[in-house]
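Final report, section 2: Outcomes. Of the targets proposed, Serine/threonine-protein kinase Kist is the one most frequently requested by collaborating groups, and we therefore present its record in full.
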Amino acid sequence: MVIENQSMKPVLFEIFGELWTVQSRLGQGVSASVYRVSSGRASTAAVKEFQADTQGGDYGYHKERSVLEDIQGHKNIVTLYGVFTNHSCVGVTTRCLLLELLDVSVSELLQGHSMWLVQHCARDILEALAFLHREGYVHADLKPRNILWSADDECFKLIDFGLSFKEGNQDVKYIQTDGYRAPEAELQNSLAQAGVEMDGDSGCTAAVDMWSLGIILLEMFSGIKLKDTVRSQEWKDNSAAIVDHIFASNSLVCPAIPVYHLRDLIKSMLLNDPKQRCIAETALLSPFFSIPFAPHIEDLVLLPSPVLRLLNLIDDSHLHNEEEYEDILEDMKEECQKYGSVVSLLIPKENPGKGQVFVEYANSSDSKEAQRLLTGRTFDGKFVVATFYPLSAYKRGYLYQTVQ
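The predicted structure is given below as tokens.
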């Protein structure tokens, strides 16, 4: 049974015999709404509730469920925990997916991303696409809103498989979102709109996903939404020249060699002929992925992880007096434990990271709460700056020198 409020938004879901509280609505589309739900401090998830289908088809639910069940287990694809049916207090039955709760989407991140973030996103999504395409599936709706950050797994993940299909068996006429739609999908959509029937062999292929990712990476690098650009005649006439111009305009603030590698990678995804476009497995071999980058402070503020980094707290004088140093360690641990379970705490005495406080929490929910409550607070008259920090780097003892 679902209890609803006056706006018809569920307040509680009963999932596998347990009541989950709806904390917020994360998104709403034509056929489904997505909610953040909680069964207590330690358990949070997302529920995708499909609209009741008056024709009895429940097509969207069955389609997405079947695709997700078939492709589970990859670290860069959202995890499906289970499925259930809801019976509302007004007698409406809806189908629901219980999904892994993820964090910010690429569309929510600051425009003009760092090379570290572009590389991280590109590699993660290419890994997801390589797996998906090997399994014979086309995502068919790749866009910034469908790429989300996982704080606990420290990677980007693909979501929303409502338009996905098996290559060679395209059962969806209208695919992809305007601005991220490959030329062959644009043509197919136009023909379908005109009532022209396509034969079974003329459907779109996995190459449409590579086109979408190329546009996403170009937007991330440039900080420009390209919807109007890719619809222009200039783009249709010579998209490569426009890509070159975008990179030339931004190359002054980035090191030249990585920029050229990224440019060439993107251009290989944006060839008009889908047969000539690079495939995901080949793209992963690009020299762009062999170049190490450090995150910018903006990345570490925006991308949650279980580790917090606290700046502007410790003076050099505190680090060289052993008694004072031990007192500070104890004080900081006591303070940080107010917000969640602390696994470890580190205050380096030398560079890199000298005087910064690194706090590893048991999970990202605790670190996010700590970051929210600590940012802007004062200790000994100093304002605290709290950013997240990559768990993998922290575990390796690697402290970025270039991030301040």
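DSSP finds 13 helices and 17 strands in the chain.
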